[in-house]
Write the C-alpha cells for this entry.
Amino acid sequence: MKDNLILAVETSCDESAAAVIGDGPTIISNVVASQIDWHKKFGGVVPEIASRKHLELIDTVIEEAVEKANIDFQDLTAVAATRGPGLVGALLVGFASAKALALSLDLPFIGVNHVAGHIYANFLIDNDIPSPFICLTVSGGHTDLMYFTSPDEYTFLGRTRDDAAGEAFDKIARFLELGYPGGPEIENLAKQGDSKAVKLPRALVGTAGFDFSFSGLKTAVINYVHNARQRGQEINKANIAASFQAAVVDSLTNRLEKALKEYRPKAVLLSGGVAANQLLRKQVESIAEDHDANFYVPPLELCTDNAAMIGAAAYYRLQKGDTDELDLGVEATLSM
Ligand code: KG4
Ligand code: ZN
C-alpha cells in the first residue's frame, strides 16, 4: 500500500495554513502565514479582512507546504481542510481550495472539526497516548473538558458557560490597551507583576459538573480598574495581568483536578491556543503528576492554529475510511 501523504489546510480564523502529514501521524511540512499584523490595529480579527487575506495567501501557502515536503501534488493520497467552527467566509476559502484539489487529483477528501484538530495535535508528539485520557482544550472560542475512553470515543465533562478562556484573555488585554492577541501580551506583562497583588475571584467548582465561567472574573478586573481610577489611583497593569492570568489558570486547573480525582485517567492532554501559556502548562503538568497521569502538550507552534493538527485529525479519520463527499459545506458553529 502507498504511504499516506495528506495535504491539510486550515483557514478558520486569522492564520492561513497548510501542512503535509505522513504516517504515524508525522509532520512532513507545516506552513503558517499569520495575518495578525493586518488585524492588530483593529484590536481583534476583522472577518472581512480575514477572508480576503486567506484568498491572497492560500495558493502560496499550499504550494509552499508541498514544496517543503519535497513531493509533487501527484504524490498526495488525501486532502483535508477545516470545516468549522470558525468564521464562515474564512473557512470557505480553505475548504473550497482543498475540495478543488481533491477533485482535480481524484483524492479522498476529509472535512475536519477545528477543535478535534487542536486535540489531535498531541498525537503528533506521541502516536501512542494511553487511554483513557482527559483533554482540556482552551482556545479563543472553546473551553472544553473531555473524557476519552479511546482516541475517538469521548464524553463532554464541562465547557464554558460564557466566555472561552482565550476570549477572556483577549477582552481583558483590550480593556487594558495591551494589544491583540491578548494571551501572549498578558503573559509577557505578567512576568513583571505580582500575581497576589489584586484579589480576584475564582469561579467555584460546581458539585454536579465541570463547567467553566469567566464573566465574573472579567467583571471583577473591570470593576477593580474603574474603582482605582475613580479614587485617582495609578493602576499597575503588570500586577493586574499577573493576577488575572493566575485566576484564569486556577479556574481551569481546579476543574481539571476534580475530574482527575473522579475519572483517574492514564493521561492528561492540554490543547488550543491558550495551552501556549507557560503558567497553565506548568500547573497542568504538576496536577497530572500528582495523579500519576502522563502529561501531553504540543510545542507552542502546534498549540495556536496550524494545519498540521488538521492533518493529524484527518489521518485518524482516513484510517477508518471515514471520508467526506465533495458536496459537504462549511459550518461556522460545527460541534464535536
Ligand atoms: O487556538 P487558537 O490559536 O485559535 C482559536 O481556535 O481560537 O487560540 C487563540 C487564543 C487567543 O484568544 C489568544 O489570546 C490565546 O489563544 N493565546 C494565549 C496565549 N497564546 C495564545 N492565551 C494565553 N497565553 C498565551 N501565551
Ligand atoms: Zn484554534
